[in-house]
Amino acid sequence: MDPSAYIILSAILFTIGAIGVLLRRNAIVVFMSVEMMLNAANLAFVTFARMHGNLEGQVIAFFVMIVAAAEVVVGLAIIMTIFRTRRSVSIDDPSLMRN
Amino acid sequence: MPELSDFGNDPFWLVCLKTLGVFVILVVLVLFTIWAERRVVARMQMRIGPNRTGPFGLLQSLMDGFKLALKEEIIPVTAHRAVYWLAPLLSAITAFAAFAVIPFGPEVSIFGVITPLQLTDFPQSVLYVLAVASIGIYGLVLAGWSSGSTYPLLGGLRSSAQMISYEISMGLSFVAVFLYAGSMSTSQIVSSQQSLWFAVLLAPSFVIYVTAMVGETNRAPFDLPEAESELVGGFHTEYSSLKFAMFFLAEYINMVTVSSIATTLFLGGWMAPWPLSLIPGINSGWLPMLWWLAKTMLFIYLFIWLRGTLPRLRYDQFMAFGWRVLIPVSLLWIVLVSGLRAIREEMGDTSNTMLAVGAIILAVLLGLLLLATMRRTRVREPDIVEPTGPLSPQAGTFPVPPLPGQTFEYTPRSRQPVAGATTSGSQEEPDA
Amino acid sequence: MSMSVIVAAASEGSTGEQFTFWTCAILSVIGALGLVLSRKTVHSALFTALTMLNLAVLYIANDAPFLGLVQVIVYTGAVMMLFLFVLMLVGVDSSDSLIETLKGQRLIAVLLLAGFAVLLILTLGTALTGTQSVGLVAANEEFGGNVQGLAHLMFTTYLLPLEVVAALLITAALGALVLAHRDRWTPKLDQEALSRLRMERYAETGAHPGPLPNPGVLATSNAIGTPALLPDGSPSELSVPPPLRGESRSRLAAETTEIDADVTEVREIAEGKETMRPKALRDVDGHTDLAEVYPEEKGD
Amino acid sequence: MSILTAAQAVLPMSDGAPAENVEPITATITAAQAGGAFPLMWLLFALPAVGAAVLLIVGRRSDRWGYLLACALPIGSFILACILLAQMMALPEADRQVTLELWNWTFAGSFDAAFALRLDPLSISFVMLITGVGSLIHIYSIGYMAEDPKRRLFFAYLNLFVAAMLLLVLADNYLLVYVGWEGVGLASYLLVGFWQYKDSAAVAAKKAFVMNRVGDVGLSLAIMLMFLTFGTVTFSDVFEAAPEASETTLTIIGLLLLLAAVGKSAQFPLQAWLLDAMEGPTPVSALIHAATMVTAGVYLVVRSNAIFDLSTTAISVVLAIGVITMTMGAWIACAQDEIKKSLAGSTMSQIGYMFLGAGLGPAGYVFAIFHLLMHGMFKADLFLSAGSVMHGNDDQKNMRLYGGLRVAMKVTMVAFFCGFLGISGLPPFDSWFSKDGIIDAALGVNVFAGLVALGVAGMTAFYMTRMLAMTFFGSPRWAEDQHPHESPPVMTVPMLILSIGALFGGLFFVYVAPIGEWLAPVTGYEESTPVIPEIPLKLTSLAIAIIGIALGWRKYATKDVPRVAPTNVTILTTAGRHELYGNAFNESLFMRPGQYLTRWLVWFDNRSLDGLVRGIATGIGDLGGKLRLWETGYARSYALSMLGGALLLGVVVATARWF
Question: Residue D104 is inside which H or E element, if any?
Fold first, then answer.
């Protein structure tokens, strides 16, 4: 099958993820959107691996998964901490770095 | 012995037939397990157990199932309908799906087609089991959440936390098996145990797996998420009728699944045990299914036995055990196994060195264990003071009943008429 | 099961793969849209899980069975579960307000995204036309299988990244522990301290030290909104769960009148003994100030 | 040999006549070759160092036993020093220079200074003085500091001092000398400020420290210059290479070394700190500011004799400083009313004598060191006695409030009197030999200096008589609640032992163990011919001393001493009371100009450099303020920026690919 279909799917998912990141205010949803973008990238990597006939794309996808897992752990911990102090998971609330 | 290339060649009708077979085996085994549990526990508690429905009460579970299906279904108003529906389905489907890669026997001839007695197999099939199990957890979490009630939510969270935790040590216990079998496919793992079962060769992995599988299935003594006395019934508190039956079914199928995985990975699967395996031809044809069944039943009996014997753990103890004992020990064991294998790869036939190193490591571990136990015995004895003399109910802390050897000293208040206690002006003493 | 079918289909490049791809692609796009569009966060999480499951299938279809299974175990089993946990900890009912608060964010975002989409379509369109996939059959066969091939790459060429990533994971775990850790400023309340507190509160305010009475005890029905009857026949509002209390006022009143007859009967039987229960104890149930009951105890 | 010519006995004699030239020690043998206890010589300073470390690290837990340990360790060092002395005397004269290289602690490029010790007659003499007097003062301190809550700390610092001082005199190279030099400076600072809750003590400690730093700069510059010139800082190598250097270089090195010596030894013009340093506990004054540390300057000059011998300018400056300080110190000692300050003035004066001796060149080195050793004993004795007097009089320091203490403090008076005999130049006691040796040599080299020295000898006798009389004789002038009492034996016994040294040290070193023969191989010796014949000279000096004593006795013992210092005094007395305006001198000459310079520099810096820097900073800040508007604080805005950036990048890349 033509691998470009997978790549296009990956692009679609990535864009939808980006929409989520940009437009949603719930920090957890934003975070899930980031995961969605990572997954889309992974799909592209896996497809590239198949297209080029070597496994390195899969290895990269594997590393992306690990890094994403690490990121989720820390990110969710941060969200929890913010929630504890602010009673809110809105990503716009912790804007202490403003100006 | 079936090879990996033997799979995936079945005609469509045979696939359907095999699927049906797996389904039937599972359902029958579940019915039997429920009955066996009630009978065995009853025996352990000097009771008789169900013995009315069918011979030895064998049909009891079937009848219970019918009854459950026919009961009125109550759905809480606060429940989230779609997810409430989805949850038991997820539980049951994943429970069945995990069984697809369990080998029941060697290649047999079914209606003229030579095929392995196993629905399917592929190089990563054990990982598939883990993956399916991790999806199954969704059933629990979603059931707990969608019920819209506090107890199920807590129970669901607890169960899933527990299952995820124990899935880690479970996965880790597989690693040594993968290393020795050189494959993640169930059929290959079975065939690599021809000479020696992994339960013997990788005894620590086996022990870890057996412990983790009890935690994974939420069974006693690790059944705290469903602790009736604490959480009413866990994640399925608000479920009734057929949906509850599905959870029930899923739980018992999971029992059977983890038992059969234990059989497959550690007890040589469908192969006959040692003295019997010397008989030629005993590991061919349909007969090995019997060995598989016997080994699986052995584990199911273990489950029942544990339930009848052990008290329930506290949640924090349980989690601490999983994270601080099982996982570190698994990791150590994996390091040891891979280290030994690496030594063997690098140094060739130097089993003596390996044995010496192993002995030293074992000695060190034993020493550490000994130290740990010695430390535990050094716990300071609490100072027990035999209370004597009169005791004031308000003395020191909070009112306590007099201990043996103490006399109760009445406060002036208890002797006085209680102010405002009279509605008709009577001044009677409260009886002491 | 279906997995081997998928694998087989993928390697052949047959209509089987077409079917798998379209099914999973549609489902995963639905999941992604659901993630962005759901108002309830839990729904977003479930939709995400759906997408990830479908992506796993697509990985398998793309000759990456190991990665597909790892995707299920890691993403669906662990990551998304973690999300669900956090959701339930921060309150699952937190649904998002869809009003945009940042000035111009939505407009610029839409414009940029549109540009991004155009760019993607253009680049992908030109880059992908006429590409043909080599397939992984040869690469997989080299070391005897997909897992073996991956392992070979990871433990030789990519050994350093692997070690670094392992360190990263440990760091992340520690970081999460540190972030989620809350220092305990007060000593942990054990059973003894709790009971002491309860008794102190009893001594100070007269709050009932024991567990609350169960609903429906000695009452006509055991429904959760039905108040229990005390031994002297009066209904105890404390036995009703707080959310139902206000709502059940009327029911309480009805219940009271309904059982009034029984109570009178009991009272008549117990005639001469006035009450079966000292007034003081009833007062305690009703939160009477203890000072009224035991005035001389004040000074202690 | 008559007593009058006894001073000559210190000189190296061969067949009753002074040797023309002394063969300097050339051979250096290592400790391992020397054998015996020599390889253990590092223990000399290691023992007290360990004591200091233990007391400081173990802390309060050692309060109960720490001081005993601190006493035992210097005594151990002393015993070891005795053994080493005996072994060294057994060595042939030319071999009396033992080195012990412990490890190499500094190497940078060609610079290479080993942590090496050197034991020769000069350093072993110092070691004996430091450990002997040090041990006695440690023991004395047990009694003196008995009531002090921080006694353990005091002993720790004392041990630290002893260790540093021993390192100073044992060092084999200038860099290690510098370590010891700074170490004693630190110990002195800590001990002067030991009662730092008193403002005066804290200020005095700071002052001593700062003024010492001025000298230390000289030493460090000298070391650098030495390395630059000779490529090494080891004694033997430097001395060997010295004749090849130009005289200017040697003069500069010598003057820098002299600056260091002047700072450490409180000589003019860096003399102002010594009197203030008397704020420290009296054992400190006795050990550090009389017997050992302040003489380190003399040690440095004598040790570097190879350099000074080659530079007439430098050695003349040494001589001049000696003469000036000698006079100043005596002057101050005559006018001060506080017993310790008077003694401090005396110390300055006596060290001035030593500098004078050292400034005479080879003719005077031996006498400088001889006088140094004698001074170490009698001045320690005097200080300890003074401390005992203060101890018995509620820490009263003003001599005008003593009077007639001979009744109450007999032992102390005996000890003080012995010290008096030792210092005032009466035969046959210490100064009779050592000071007159210097005067003799001075008259041979520089008549003017010799005559001044003779005069100051009379002043010495005068102020010592003044102190003796004001303290122990005359009518009692104590306050009502001041109950003078004798000190405990733990204090008086060390005093008495030192008294013996003060009385008979001179005789011992002249007749029993001739110090000149002992030291001359290290310092070199040249005979000088006095302009006045010997016997008239001796008689003159004795007469001057007796006149001084008589004047003092007449003024302070036979007349009543007013309790409050009289104000209608000569300008000389007023100047003496103000320490000859040393502080004012320093202030106007160094401090004020320094302050003005600093202020001007700050002003200049603000206007020129800072203006430029601030301008740039303000510009960047303004730019940052503009850029800051981009930072909204909202994560989603940042995400938007990222998307924009990615888009831009993608467009660029795609364009590049297409065209």
Answer: strand D98-108
